[in-house]
Amino acid sequence: MPAELRKRKVAVLGARSVGKSSLIMQWAEGCFLDSYYPTIENSVSKSLNLKGVQYDCEVIDTAGQDEYSIFNSRHAVGIHGYVLVYSVASRTSFDMIQVLYDKIVDFCGVSQIPCVIVGSKVDLPARQVPTEEGQQLAKENSAAWIETSAKQNVNVGKVFELCLAQVDKQTSGKQTEAPAKGCTLM
Ligand SMILES: Nc1nc2c(ncn2[C@@H]2O[C@H](COP(=O)(O)OP(=O)(O)OP(=O)(O)O)[C@@H](O)[C@H]2O)c(=O)[nH]1
Hints:
The protein is of the alpha/beta class and about 190 residues long. It has one domain (about 5-170): Rossmann fold. Helix content is about 30%, strand content about 25%. The protein has a 6-stranded mixed beta sheet with strand order 2-3-1-4-5-6, sandwiched between helices. Helix 3 (about 130-140) links the parallel strand 5 and strand 6. It comes from Cylindrobasidium torrendii FP15055 ss-10. One of its GO terms (molecular function) is metal ion binding. Keywords: GTP-binding, Hydrolase, Lipoprotein, Magnesium, Membrane, Metal-binding, Methylation, Nucleotide-binding, Prenylation.
């Protein structure tokens, strides 16, 4: 019997240079680049099979945000789930996570969104954001949470597995079409 198919569109957001593109590239292509090229916008597709379900994923890599960035409706319309990335070596990027989360729920008119909060670059020695603070932020927003290194390929696959699980948890789990308008309602 063919596996059940679920189509999922995921947006990856966060401050500039936190490693969004690197995370996606490591997940999709299995490679890492030390050089930095600011993203305008990009999308990557990949299929994966989890517990007998086939997920066809489209992942949107967005340009780095700051608190003054205007929220782009393309990052909410038709999106099933979110990956919000900060660098554990940047307190400013961590502070951006709640700002971004609030912008998304405000735009969508919902109280929570299927989301995984990611503390990236754990291989760097100069940590500014303790593990517990990341976990606490996720708890306060009913989000999943994980720390990663795209450079050392630590927990990269788990990011997207957690995101897909959050989507299934917060929707019927059966939805295969992206929402036609706005976010998935909670
Ligand atoms: N040490 C380390 N460096 C990383 C890691 N991930 C990304 N980088 C580096 O951080 C810089 C920025 O990475 P990008 O993936 O381009 O970051 P981004 O968030 O997509 O950046 P914007 O496009 O500006 O939003 C690059 O020089 C990467 O090589 C990591 O896990 N560890």
